[in-house]
Amino acid sequence: MAKNFTAEQRAKHARDVAACQKRNREAGLCSCGRPPGQGFKKCSTCRERIKRRIEAKKTLGICTRCKASAEPGHTLCGKHRQEISQRTNKLRRTVRAKALEAYGNRCACCGESRREFLTIDHVGGTGAAHRRLLKVISPHSATNISWWLQKNGYPEGFRVLCWNCNCAIGIHGACPHDAELATRS
After folding, report:
1. Quick one: 48 exposed, middle or buried, by C-beta within 10 A (0-12, 13-18, 19+)?
2. 163-to-55, 66, 108, 110, 167 alpha-carbon distances in Å
3. What are the two backbone dihedrals, phi and then psi, of residue 121, each rounded to the nearest 5 degrees?
4. Which backbone phi and psi does 27 adopt, to 5 degrees?
5. Rounded to the nearest 10 degrees, how much is the dihedral formed by the CA atoms of 61, 65, 66, 70?
């Protein structure tokens, strides 16, 4: 026969379990106490259990984060989709800002410093080849390049250009600012 616990007993048990899981995580273990797989925070048993739970929720059309109905064609409810979208956008802006900062935060050609206009340029026109090499084909390729730059310690061979200068170099082979500077000298 199942024992009926009071709300206070259930709350205490939940606190004890949370404290135990926290100790395990701090010790570098999975929250269940087993060692995690290499490169993971969870052990294989817990990863499989989580995977099965998510698949069951997907099948039922339930948000994989809570018990609300998932939006049609998605695995999350509207609240969680918006939350993840906001977090992702913030992270994307941060990574891009760090990349721009690493390369000077202003156009190397005309000196433009408004971030809305700035892009990362491959010096020597090697951008298309580099993107093909990385297989970066997405609407957020600029962000993917920023991630790659961060991961690789902001290597040489890149610079910041404003959109106008970058397009002029890509289309015409040179920026009009270069010609202006040459005539002034």
Report:
1. exposed
2. 44, 42, 12, 11, 6
3. -115, 140
4. -85, 5
5. -30
* Rg from Cα positions in the chain: 25
Whether this prediction's pTM lies above 0.70 is answered by no
Cα torsion 118, 122, 125, 128 to 10°: value is: -100
Report residue 119: phi and psi, to 5°: -135, 165
Could you tell me the maximum CA-CA distance found in the chain, to the nearest angstrom? 94
Digitized pLDDT (tens) for each residue of the chain, 185 residues in all: 456 788 898 889 889 888 888 888 888 888 888 888 888 888 899 899 989 988 888 888 898 888 888 888 888 899 999 999 999 899 989 999 999 999 999 999 899 999 999 999 998 888 878 877 776 555 555 557 888 899 899 999 999 999 999 989 888 888 888 777 667 66
Question: Looking up tokens 């961060």, which residue turns up?
Answer: 150
